[in-house]
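Quick one: N-acetylglucosamine-6-phosphate deacetylase from Streptomyces cavourensis, structure tokens please.
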Amino acid sequence: MAGRAADSTVLAGARVVLPTGTVEDGRVTVESTRISGTAPEDARVVDLTGHWVVPGFVDMHNHGGGGASFTSGTADEVLDGIRTHREHGTTTLVGSMVTGEMDFLVRQAGILSELVEQGDLAGLHFEGPFISPCRKGAHSEQLLRYPDPADVRRLVEAGRGTARMVTLATELPGGIDSVRLLADLGVIAAIGHTDATYAQTVEAIEAGATVATHLFNAMPPIAHREPGPITALLEDDRITVELINDGTHLHPAVLELAYRHKGAGRVALITDAMDAAGFGDGEYQLGPLAVEVRDGVARLVEGGSIAGSTLTLDTAFRRAVTIDRIPVEDVVRSISANPARLLGVDDRVGSLEPGKDADLVVLDEDFVLAGVMRKGEWIIEPKTS
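--- reply ---
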């Protein structure tokens, strides 16, 4: 761990990934908390030859880490989880909550919204309780409910303007009206944990849905006479698809399929992380459900369903480049620029451009994390010779 860099710092010699492409032997100038277009003569120079410099990662779907749950943790516990993900390169993070009692979710939204207001989180995401019991995954079936617009509005308002996304099974009663409500409120309506048909999914997209919650997971597979939601979500350019690239949720060929059909501009790599991310194997709670993490894979004790992930975005980045063979520039769009755009924070983060926050990640030649900077402060300072 390290503190703030000098007021003017030049990161030199690395391959720098910019919105226009990769610059060999590039330079990034940091002035206080922001990226600058020019460097004063007395700026400190950090030689990063042999490294990559990419924008800080933006995770729009994350339930916790470092032993802390964003659904049930105190403010201090949530901050521990945030710090864990920052140490893995995620400099912008949305706090996601799983299904719970409405009153409980309202109270927890109040806690998380304060962390948004003080700049620790980028917003709130409600994944449930408005999801299908047929595709509930690691959500308590007893606490699920139809997406009545009045209930959806109540949760959004509990976030005091910080709600960024709500995941819905839009085929349920009230689903389409709730999508329209969310669109009117400026909140992302995400289709997920759904048993919808192809036609029902198309209807939800026309109503204003713009994101597919962890595409392929917790939804019907593609069939030759029943194309289902996946086909509708892949074919429509208005939809950005979330992908969990941990080697458990998706086969590499499926990840490649999504990139090929959506293009890098409509993919968002997420963690869907739970408490165990960056913490280790053991027994945990996901909402009211018991979870066992073994060999880094989280599953419900009862039933064995996958219960989120223990993924961090540095691992997702490295897998995408080294195993899935996705071009580095495309991975950067998926892990930084695209989620920043969806969350409405791309004026500040998501790319290395003058005027934006000095949020960046340093990777070695094998794409292993070597440094993290957030708003000009080194969270992990790279070791240089």
